Amino acid sequence: MMQPERVAMPSSFNVNRAAGYEQLMGRWSQKLAPLLIQFAGIDDGERILDVGCGTGSLTFALPQAADVREVVAIDYSPVFVEETRRRNHDRRIAVREADACALPFQDGYFDRALSLLVLHFVTDAAKAVSEMRRVVRPGGVIAAAVWDHLGGLPSMRMMWDTVAASGGAAREARSRYLFQPMMRPDEMKQCFIEQGLAEVEQTSLVIRMDYRSFDDYWEPIAAGEGPLGKYVSALGPAERAETDAAVRAAYEGGEPDGPRSFAAVAWACRGVRPFP
Predict the structure, then answer these.
(1) pLDDT at 9 over 90
(2) Burial label, 129 (beta-carbon count in 10 A; 0-12, 13-18, 19+)
(3) What is the model's pTM?
(4) Cβ-contact 125, 181 below 8 angstroms
(5) 131 touches 74 (CB < 8 A)
């Protein structure tokens, strides 16, 4: 594999601690990973690239789905790279820090390139798809999934709608969150087609997010993890107290605190790199 000079293209996702990310999203991406693998397909003996590995939800699910030859997992965040390396005990898996928009691999090296809950945070999502196409062999598969923030993620939409009731900056932040790249209907499919992929298919992947209590839901956000946490952590003390109380009331819904379950829908797309 070639290792050209990296061109910085940061992700817009903010992470402070791996454990905080796990509580916020990692536990749900673990449930989503097998669905993406099933949609993308996988065969024994393949080389697979995981673009934006996070804490390894997809990375570690791949060798469980097939007897793969090699899995290379990359992420822009050193926090994620360190944590995935710490968890790894499989010699077939290599983890490295790299940019999704400038993948440090030679053309056609992999059989498949997959990306789970990443493209909507990449500064230039189309460039990342182009790079995934480049590093996959002709006939190889590219597949990705992102949350449907607008209509398919009520656990997070509930929080944004609650804080947006105050107007102003909260409404602007909500709009940015709801309409991130690749989230509008057919947007990712059209991007795959424009980047020269063939046999492009789109579907929805559905899981449930089950929380034990409001604290289980709110702790990582309150600690500043992810886009929601970034917004909340910037609030002043009075606004913060009002927000905490309002979101708690929304979570509880007029009933005592306790378990709550939310459906969660992701857009998913797959395509094939055509032969010359």
Answers:
(1) no
(2) buried
(3) 0.91
(4) yes
(5) no
Q: Are the CB atoms for 102 and 7 separated by under 8 Å?
A: yes
Q: Are 141 and 205 in contact (CB under 8 A)?
A: no
Give the model's confidence band at 227: pLDDT under 50 very low, under 70 low, under 90 confident, else very high. Answer: confident
What is the widest separation between alpha-carbon atoms in the chain? 61
Which pLDDT score, from 0 to 100, does residue 82 have?
Answer: 94
**Using only C-alpha atoms, what is the Rg of the chain?**
19
Q: Exposure of 267 by Cβ count < 10 A (0-12 exposed, 13-18 middle, 19+ buried)?
A: buried
Structure tokens at 144: 């990705």
pLDDT tens-digit map of 134-163: 999 999 999 999 999 999 999 999 999 999
CA–chain centroid gap for 9, Å, is 17
